Amino acid sequence: MSIHARFFLDRGDFTLDVDLEIPGRGVTALFGRSGSGKTTVLRCLAGLERIREARLTFNGETWQDDTQWLPVHKRPLGYVFQEASLFPHLRVRDNLLYGFKRLAPEQRRLELDEVANLLGLADLLARYPDELSGGQRQRVSIGRALLTSPRLLLMDEPMASLDVTSKGEILPYLERLRDELSIPVVYVSHSIEEVARLADHMVLMENGRALAQGPLQTLLTRTDLPLAHSEQASAVIQGTVAAHHADDHLTELAFSGGRLLVSQQDRPIGAPLRVRILARDVSVALNRPDSSSVLNPIPVRITQISDDPHPGHVILNLVVGDYQLLARISARSRRQLDLSPGQSVWAMVKGVAVA
Amino acid sequence: MLGISDSDLTALWITLKLAVISTSILMVLSAPLAWWLAHTRWRGKVMIEALVAMPLVLPPTVMGFYLLVLLGPRGAVGGFLEDIGVGHLAFTFTGLVIGSMIYSLPFVVQPLQNAFAATGGRVLETAATLRASPLDRFLTVVLPLARRGILTAAVLSFAHTLGEFGMILMIGGNIPGQTQVASIAIYDHVEAMDYASAHALSLLLVVLAFLLLMSVYGLNRRFKVVGVA
């Protein structure tokens, strides 16, 4: 189960040359700046863009090669555009059912009611698109794509045109989709927060090329890639809710490397929880600190120390359980503590963002 | 009735019949042309656009004259039709329909082209990702969204045909009961100094035109008014 895509396009001022292996499950983020070719790749996957030198197979079926071409409307995919692009002449209900009606009954795996509940659309069905807020419109467009029971969901920065409030409104729905639907999602984004929150797998795009592709965790912490050196450099830890400490308004997360305290989360014990830890929020100490306000001291081992583009800083790769953390500390501290790879230290995690 | 003679009523009937038939055929034939003009990137498109707009600037008599020559018994089209036994088209109702269609062509193509141009792009791509075939997309997305342009085109063509004079006189002659339309009948009354009949028929046309337009626009309001995305 996977998608193999090879696209080549030379438009003079822009060259696209990618060879992608996208897993057949989970969320794959196409991440990069605007102009890096993310959207073009997505459009090629959908068949909205037809470039001549291309080869695309989906779970072994050929969608495009030198002799074959499957037109967009015959591909079992859902596509969510940056702007909701609802049909203005149809009510929400008819927008949602547009693709659904065009499926043979035996291909329908989702029903209107389910999708309306999943995305909180039940009260909006009789409205016209111009009577909806931006966030509502985008939810309808996601629902409309889902109702075609796609075997692949493509999303082109579905939150880029939304304000902060609407984004906050959509994100939980996207997380539910990720957790409850078993179809692969390819998600274009230029926001690392979004990617860290949603993606499992990542393709890093730059100037029409795939700079790297692999599991999110790995790419975030690879110091040979630009991500680990950005201001937003971070690592992601996936665990489950282990306990709630209501008095302190804290929730305890269990993961392969131990436990972490995060701000209180309204999720049941055992529920999956993903947190993001910024490199700049991690400092290190040689001994377990007994007198510190830091909530989360974690025993870790240094695996790598690399220079940062900022000459006063170094980046530490720290391993804990199956996970890596990044710590950005000053070069001076590194010298004074005499840190070196292989050494065991305590990571002092100042802030944990629930992703 | 109101001093309107039977021959006037016949002329009115022929006028309405002509407007309905030529508008209907013209709408169907213009749609693909307008679609193509709205979406082609071919550079020669301006030439076609200019040709389509020609009836706007040419005097109707000029077009009528050429059509008469073309469709008459010795014209290229008329002669051919004579040869195959159909008969030429000068001074016939069919000739009138053809003339009216050419005369109204820009009034139909231009609104359709504008409406189609505004309906391209994103909504069509969206429909394609929702499993709609090209024809399906045209019928369920383009046509509903272009509804105002379509209505405008039909109303303009219809109204234009009602008021046609010079071309019809040329190509149709003025045969009562066959090719005599209301506008020409009015002219005849005025020529004969029969102002009372001219008044009656004119007033009837005014009222008819007003009622027609009002009902069309009234109908349009009842639908959901949507901007073309």
TrEMBL record, chain A:
SMART domains: AAA (SM00382). InterPro entries: AAA+_ATPase, ABC_transporter-like_ATP-bd, ABC_transporter-like_CS, Mo/tungstate-bd_C_term_dom, ModC_ABC_ATP-bd, Molybdenum_import_ModC, Mop_domain, P-loop_NTPase. The keyword Transport applies. Residues 291-355 form the Mop domain. Keywords: ATP-binding, Cell inner membrane, Cell membrane, Membrane, Molybdenum, Nucleotide-binding, Translocase, Transport. The keyword Membrane applies. One of its GO terms (molecular function) is molybdate ion transmembrane transporter activity. This is Molybdenum ABC transporter ATP-binding protein.
TrEMBL record, chain B:
GO terms for cellular component: plasma membrane. Pfam families: BPD_transp_1. Its main location: membrane. GO terms for molecular function: molybdate ion transmembrane transporter activity. Keywords: Cell inner membrane, Cell membrane, Membrane, Molybdenum, Transmembrane, Transmembrane helix, Transport. InterPro entries: MetI-like, MetI-like_sf, ModB_ABC. The keyword Cell membrane applies. Gene3D superfamilies: MetI-like. Coiled coil: none annotated. It is found in: Cell inner membrane; Cell membrane. It is a multi-pass membrane protein. Residues 12-214 form the ABC transmembrane type-1 domain. CDD domains: TM_PBP2 (cd06261). The chain crosses the membrane at residues 12-38, 50-69, 89-109, 150-175, 195-219. Belongs to the binding-protein-dependent transport system permease family. CysTW subfamily. Part of the binding-protein-dependent transport system for molybdenum; probably responsible for the translocation of the substrate across the membrane. This is Molybdenum transport system permease. It comes from Ectothiorhodospira haloalkaliphila. The lineage of its organism: Bacteria, Pseudomonadati, Pseudomonadota, Gammaproteobacteria, Chromatiales.
